[in-house]
Amino acid sequence: MFDFTYHNPTKILFGKDAIERIREEIPSGAHVLMTYGGGSIHRNGVYERVKAALQGYRVTEFGGIEPNPQYATLMRAVELGRQAGVDFLLAVGGGSVLDGTKFIAAAIPFAGETWDIVEKRLEVREAVPLGAVLTLPGTGSEMNGWAVISHAEKRAKLAFYSPLVYPRFSALDPQTTFSLPPRQTANGIVDAFAHVMEQYVTYPVNAALQDRIAEAILVTLIEQAPKVMQNPTDYDARANIMWCATVALNGIVGVGVPQDWATHAIGHEITALYGIDHARTLALVLPAVLEFKREQKREKLLQYAERVWNLREGDEQSRIAGAIQRTRAFFESLDIPTRLSAYGIGAEAIPAIVRQLEAHGQTALGEHGDITPDVAAKILERCL
């Protein structure tokens, strides 16, 4: 196991009264900028619950943060926050709203070119404190310091990190997910699954606990997914999936172990160019990465095959192939395609995706740093 330092400052409020408890966490007298997305919180009752919890606070609202939050949209929120003099942010929504709000938090007090926070990974030295009410589990943004921001004009989708943009608290009420469309539910499950795989299927470093936590999340997602797809108001299934998604990317799985993240880097470029949902790009790329890197990942793939998919019979290669096929089948069972052809995208797209990787400095990906642009092209060929 590698040496590590782990600190997570986010307080989790979990359960049926989680939203009502947020007023205990926001400083008295705060001027709150409440951010949200396209309006689903008005249809499922979350908006009214949050507003009731904020009674007595001065509240300014900013709606319209889109999936793959756009820099231009977020900058309007930044200007609103600066002009209004807000001193606390409350993100209400899914990962895109949370990610966008993290950028707003970093950008409001930032003196330079704000896109440099993302593109140049400039250090964030000050940020407006924020909290979150999560309505769509998947990204894990509710309990980490990462955010992914898109820039339409630059055709870019890039991540940044700062310890200053961890939410002070996040309210997780599984009931808020009852009304999610099947597509969004499935996306969240695949997103969480891929997050774990990026930290787990690399190479062994004798991190036994991290492996078991990773495997527990994967098995739980596999078990709970059909339950929630068949019965969207199954509270226990929703609760288990929500917590899996949070723990998948709150740092605990990845401490002391090598991490991959090539699937995410390639997937981000597919989204930037073709607008495919983030989780769906992960379902496209992840099986291809596992297939192409099966020798480098052999030991962990065999462990994955045995502990997650219960594949113990046959030779090593057949067990590895079986595990990758089961992974594809799991994604497909959620009506999420694992081939680019399902989106009408063919081999002609590969050079453009590779050029995007090169433009954004993503030229040494994977746990060994050996996924060059040429290798990425070969991985993409397996996605066709």
Written description of the protein model:
The chain has 14 helices and 8 strands. With 384 residues, it is of the alpha/beta class. It has 2 domains: 11-176, Rossmann fold (3-Layer(aba) Sandwich), CATH 3.40.50.1970; 182-381, Dehydroquinate synthase-like - alpha domain (Dehydroquinate synthase-like, alpha domain, Up-down Bundle). The strands form 2 sheets. It has a 6-stranded parallel β-sheet with strand order 1-8-5-4-2-3, with helices on both faces. Strands 6-7 form a two-stranded antiparallel ribbon. The mean pLDDT is 97.
How would you summarize the topology of this molecule?
Layout (H helix, E strand, L loop, with lengths): L10 E4 L16 E5 L4 H4 L2 H8 L4 E5 L8 H14 L3 E7 H13 L8 H4 L10 E7 L9 E6 L4 E6 L7 E4 L9 H19 L7 H23 L4 H14 L13 H13 L3 H15 L5 H10 L8 H18 L16 H10 L13 H9 L3
Mean pLDDT: 97
The beta-strand count equals 8
**Domains, number:** 2
Quick one: CATH superfamily of the largest domain? Answer: Dehydroquinate synthase-like - alpha domain
Query: Structural class, please?
Result: alpha/beta
User: What's the story with the biggest beta sheet?
Assistant: 6 strands, parallel
Strand arrangement across the biggest beta sheet: 1-8-5-4-2-3
Outline the low-pLDDT stretches.
none
Tell me the helix content.
40-55%
Order of H and E elements? EEHHEHEHHEEEEHHHHHHHHH
